[in-house]
Amino acid sequence: MDTLQSSQFPRLDSCSRETIINYFKNSWELEDVLMKSLVGEETFYMSPDPLRNRLIFYLGHSAVFYINKFLGVGLLDKPINPNYEILF
Fold first, then answer.
1. Is residue 3 part of a domain?
2. Does residue 2 register a pLDDT over 80?
3. How far is it, in rounded angstroms, from Cα 65 to Cα 28?
4. HEC-encoded secondary structure of the chain
5. Cβ pair 59, 72 in contact under 8 A
6. pLDDT value at position 1?
7. What is the mean pLDDT of the chain?
8. 19, 47, 59, 64 from 6: Cα distances, Å
9. What percent of the chain clears pLDDT 90, i.e. is strictly above it?
């Protein structure tokens, strides 16, 4: 059985494009495994901590975070879904 582990955060001042892409893919896969571990629809509406959002919020948060960062540095020309990009 393969084990999924978190990659070490790359040094952005001295890493390659491939390193950043691999880090992104690893992070995305870790989040996917985490979200798939939630059992039952009701689980998504639970809040694990009073200071945190319900779990369903985090289902879209990372994707929108990346979109907003790409917009901010000019890698995307226009928003994909402005309503989500404000919400998350």
1. no
2. no
3. 12
4. CCCCCCCCCCCCCCCCHHHHHHHHHHHHHHHHHHHHCCCCHHHHHCCCCCCCCCHHHHHHHHHHHHHHHHHHCCCCCCCCCHHHHHHC
5. no
6. 61
7. 90
8. 13, 24, 19, 21
9. 52
Predicted local distance difference test score (pLDDT) of residue 79: 94
Output the pTM of the full model. 0.72
HSE (side-chain half, CA atoms, 13 Å) at 20: 7
**Which structural domain range is residue 33 located in?**
17-87
User: Angle between the 55-72 and 17-36 helix axes, to the nearest 10 degrees?
Assistant: 160
- Asked whether residue 62 is domain-assigned, the answer is yes
Domain membership of residue 10 (yes or no) is no
Question: How many structural domains does the chain have?
Answer: 1
Residues 26-49: pLDDT tens digits?
A: 999 999 999 999 999 999 999 989
Domain for residue 36, yes or no? yes
